[in-house]
Amino acid sequence: MSERITEARARLAVLADDDRRDERIDPRYLGRSWVHDEVAAVAVVLLHGLTNAPPQYDRLAPELAARGHAVLVPRMPYHGYRDRMTDAIANLRAVDLELTALEAVAIAALCGERVVVLGVSVGAVLAGWVAARTSIDTAVAVSPFCGLRFVPGTLNDALGASLRLAPNRFSWWDPRLKENQPPPHGYPRFATRALGEALVLSTTMRSAGSATHARRAVVVLNPREPAVNNAFAARRFGQLEGDGVIVSTVELARAPNVHDVIEPAIPEARPEFVYPRLIDIIETA
For 67-80, what is each residue's pLDDT tens digit? Predict the structure, then answer.
């Protein structure tokens, strides 16, 4: 076993031990990793969405590992709790997401010669943020949550700043389903303050001229997207070209009319169509 893999496993063990000591966290929803005995050609970091948890990738991650890739799925702070109705998610800050992603990328760099970071929704914005600041090879941003679909362009930035500072409130993701909203490992409510933090994250995506950046970023958009502003997301990711990142856009032409096209527990998500497209992007050098 290489020294790099030994160090990676030690760092992953520390993170897992810290989480196991927190009784609020459901042990089924801890971070996941598939690390081989030798350094892989590609290491993939998978970033889950707001109020979701690592099981979001319990179908895609093993597929990638079976293809020889090292795979890391970190648990974001305040996520994966036993209590799906927890109020703790209101404490989430953009910096919590940033630090978690940076640690995952550092470990992935020990596990693979080329690092790919894929995220969905808020995780997609976080992948772009990482792309502007680290030497990963590729960021894959699936349905990035840079703004709400029916809010014009940069008004989303003002909305994020307002929600971030206003008193927190909780809302159902789906007022019809309420606590029955899938997936079972996610929270059926969101905190408006956490939503504000997520929106503000996209305003800080660019690195302000850092010489270190990803080689490329691929923005994966769903033409039938019901929740986020695709055009605004494409423009915001396009700004990464100013940091030296090669940016391209891919449309999922036959994608379903759902925002989260990753989550296998959502019946309409059609992972059998989406996953091969994502794997092809990851494996394209």
Answer: 999 999 999 999 99
